[in-house]
Amino acid sequence: MEIFRRALLLWVAACVVGGMVGCKRGKSDQGSSSGGVGHEPTSEADTVTQPLTFDFPAQWRAPDPEVNAFVESVLTIAARGDYDAFRQLFAMAYTPPSRQEFQRAWEAIESIRVAGLYGDRPGEPEKYYLHAVVDRRDPDGKGRLKLDRVMVVFKEANRWRLGPAPGEVIELIVRAASQPATWPAS
Questions:
Q1: The three-state (H, E, C) secondary structure of the chain, written as one string
Q2: Is residue 186 part of a domain?
Q3: I need a labelling partner for 100 at 20 to 30 A (CA). Which of 8, 58, 87, 155 fits?
Q4: Does the residue 185 lie in any domain?
């Protein structure tokens, strides 16, 4: 079960980080201002399961267009179920899930929405934390249909790469995202 959770986390992170580059917007998305993208089947995996959709809203885009392009490519690769391209998104220090783990996770996910992209410091961040909300097709072993996933995006050998975020960062981001917004008292 832990291997599946890890594979799902890595897959979702990959999905969230890079899928918009080169994507075609579906007819239903043409009026959308959220940046959401439909997906037409392009691989053998697509013919088995309904297409995965993703959304990378403009409000969560980084000032660095390279980072946004990487996140869009991750999302695109994940949406089309391209395992070979997916595993190449990870830094050398991290082992991506097996092809079978990836396929199981891919089939379980209906959609991915970027819920945050946070730099590690103001100005020019060295790394970003990508928060994604994953909608599952069926409940997981704990009965959940929505999952929060956080990945780290950083440069390795002058290329943007993915890796799992540290536990304390995941907890902080997910907890902050679940809190209602508050307005200052007048």
A1: CHHHHHHHHHHHHHHHHHCCCCCCCCHHHCCCCCCCECCCCCCHHHHCCCCCEEECCHHHCCCCHHHHHHHHHHHHHHHHCCHHHHHCCECCCCCCCCHHHHHHHHHHEEEEEEEEEEECCCCCCCEEEEEEEEEECCCCCCCCCEEEEEEEEEEECCEEEEEECCHHHHHHHHHHHHCCCCCCCC
A2: no
A3: 155
A4: no
Q: Is residue 41 exposed (0-12), middle (13-18) or buried (19+ Cβ within 10 Å)?
A: middle
* Structural domain boundaries, residue 164: 2-178
The reply to whether 123 falls in a domain is yes
Number of domains composing the chain: 1
* Rounded average pLDDT over 46-61: 80
- In this predicted structure, the answer to whether residue 85 has a pLDDT above a threshold of 80 is yes
For residue 24, CA distances in Å to 40, 79, 177 come to: 8, 12, 29
Does 124 have pLDDT greater than 90? no
